[in-house]
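notes to self, project folder thing:

trying the whole complex as one job this time. last attempt i did each chain seperately and stitching them together was a nightmare. two parts in total, labels are on each line so i dont mix them up again. if this works i'll redo the older ones the same way
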Amino acid sequence: MSGNLFLRGVILLGFALLMFKFIVTGQIQQLIAPKMLPFLYFAMITLFMLSIIQIWRSDNKHMVCCGCGHHKSNARFQSFVVYVIFVFPVLAGFTFSNHVLDSSVAAKRGIQLGGMAGSGTASDNEEEFFSQLFGNQIEEVPMEKGEKVDKNQLGKALLAADKVVFTRENYLAALEIVHNNAENFIGKEVELTGFVYREPDFAKEKAVIARFGISCCVADASVYGMLVSGKHLKSIVNDEWVKVIGVIKQTNYKGNVFPCIEIKEINKIQQPNEPYIYEDLL
Amino acid sequence: MKRAISNDFFAFLLLLLFLYLFFFYEMHKITFTLPKEWAIVNTMFLGIILEAIPFILIGVFVSAFIQTFISEDTLRRLIPKNPYVAIVFAAFFGIVFPVCECAIIPIVRRLIRKGMPPAVGMTFLMSAPILNPVVFASTYYAFQAKNQMAFARMGLAFLVAVLVGMILYRMFKQKNPLKTKISSTHEHVHTENKWKATLYHASDEFFDTGKYLLIGAFLASLVQTFLNRNVLLQIGTDELVSPFIMMGFAYVLSLCSEADAFVAASFGNTFSAGAVLAFLIYGPMLDLKNTLMLFAYFRKRFVIGFILVLTCVVYFVVLLYQTLF
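result (full assembly):
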């Protein structure tokens, strides 16, 4: 049975190496959210240790594994299938895992205009934000990379700014603020980056500029975006990454009023290295 | 002996392959790609398993720890004598002992084998992935504008866990629901060192549990890729039908209980609060990913009984909630 223990050790090592490679190349960001990384470090180190132990144990003949009595020929085939099940994800991970979610996924999941749908109505926070709004002025946008998004602060900053700039860090919060308080933002200049997505019934000059938001892993990805319109869009196909500069106005969509960006300028860009945004906890 | 050598040889080749892929293979330089939809399946699959593996490992370690360090007698003394009291106690236990749905199954299996009454064990299995601070926080955050959702989720999950636990107790009493076959594999690792034994148990159980996780994760990633969510809306947003649809949806998606609130929130505008709650309660208690694990460890009759009872109880509790609020 030493063969099976050795094989198990190798498979565990395979998983550990795969995780290590994902982490080193940064590709892990396309599979799970940064806040889950500590758990992944833990798993990688544990798997690595377990693999060493298994391999060492396989060399230790008197420490016979307890499962060995059961391996008849049928069981042997079964155990072969089990090992294939374990080897498969490691190979798939090493070879074909660099796919970034695109508009075909967005079409199946449905798109969310304006940040998180659960917060579609103005919360107490926002009422408070408006009562304070015109009292004190804030000059600079307090968004630093990795800094927690404070919606009140951000809302004031966005309203005070000459131009509303959506960044990876403020993306969700800013979308939500703009959608919940659309009337205050009409006429404001705005800059937004994302991929182009169109519902089947959209005209050529209409689209959503969207990004995928992930809370734990890609399986829970949702699509968040904002309506845009303008002649410039005609030449741009779905899934193209663009940076849009325009002015906020309002439009009717599916019987509701939504803010929409009237495009002044649109530039195709490379898909960013960090295409996703993360729904950070609190 | 010959067999062992051929296995070793195969394993050695595999090791070389892994090392080659690790050091020399560069994905972006290869022009050959999978068909797009399968590339998405692959991405989803890897996302789900990388997310789950740390928690499976935690579950496996806790289980191995219980196996080596907690005796049957200790466990018996800790559990209240009255089964109904024990069930309520188990439903609360998740609050102090947060485990998600991947980690919980090996732990509960171990506890039942150590003599915990099955109904109590299953109550713990249902409540622990929901009634814990982490899940409360993420639900609260995902539903900022409707923060009653987080409280309703906790309250109803508690109610469901206790009700289902009591019904299971009436149905199965103390009958051992575990398959006996598997138990022979792990019970006799002879070793002098308890810590070493824990590690051996852990890696054996990782393979034992992991295979069901991998198959389940693969099925879930197929659903993730090919299911068009707009279809759900067409099937119905009717008060009576929608909770059922959302339960089925939670079942096939197999999301982590920490992350599912964000997906549920995306349905907040189209489905009723009751239907969204059905999604939030049913999913962590039972999904595609862990049904296979349940069938592997428990007797078929027991698992089917559990699934039926759980489904009915969640449905009726949600209907009750809808009529009351």
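what i see at first glance: Chain B touches chain A through 91 residues (CB under 8 Å).
need to look closer tmrw
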